[in-house]
Amino acid sequence: MADEEEAPPPVDQIKLIHKLNLFKIKGRDKRGRKILRIIGKHFPAKDLTVDLLKKYLEVKIFPKLERPFVIVYIHTDVNKSDNFPGISALRSVYDAIPITVKQFLETVYFVHPDLQSRLFLATFGRFIFTGGLYAKLKYVSRLAYLWEHVRRNAIEIPEFVYDHDEDLEYRPMMDYGIESDHPRVYDAPVVDSSVAMYSTRCIS
Q1: Model's pTM, two decimal places?
Q2: Has residue 5 been placed in a domain?
Q3: Which residue, of 63, 140, 146, 154, is most buried by count of CB atoms within 10 Å of its CB?
Q4: What is the pLDDT of residues 97-108, one digit of tens each?
């Protein structure tokens, strides 16, 4: 009996990824490079298989990245239990990226990194992202720092990202997990911003 052909990914799940607006290629940064925007909060880790994600990227995303590009990854409001696929899944997806696409990727802007993500990348980043990608990662703790590299009208930013950015201005210690993330209170005492150090350092 002949081997059965691999079944194509379910159309409804492909539509789900597209509807969630998880990946979007639009606009260029100030150096003329294409922008691939990724919204971490939109990633349905519980409902999306790694194989389906890789297939979607292979068909819908990778063919459009045939010249230098950057990634703007928005980490705002990501919850580990809902939006994090796991270390092995990340490594599997990264290994599936064609070498030509990896070569064209020049910078990854990591917007609103929290303390957990910084610690995770410091521990596992070089293991997961081999081949130099880890060195291309730049933490961007405020949208104002992103605008130094990307024009505001070149990329669509969800409203909840702006809200979180404003929260961080009022309570900067949230950057380091010292203060919990809860609805902002405008009449509360303002934390002296000189205490916090805003990190835009490129990890190398």
Answers
A1: 0.78
A2: no
A3: 140
A4: 999 899 999 999
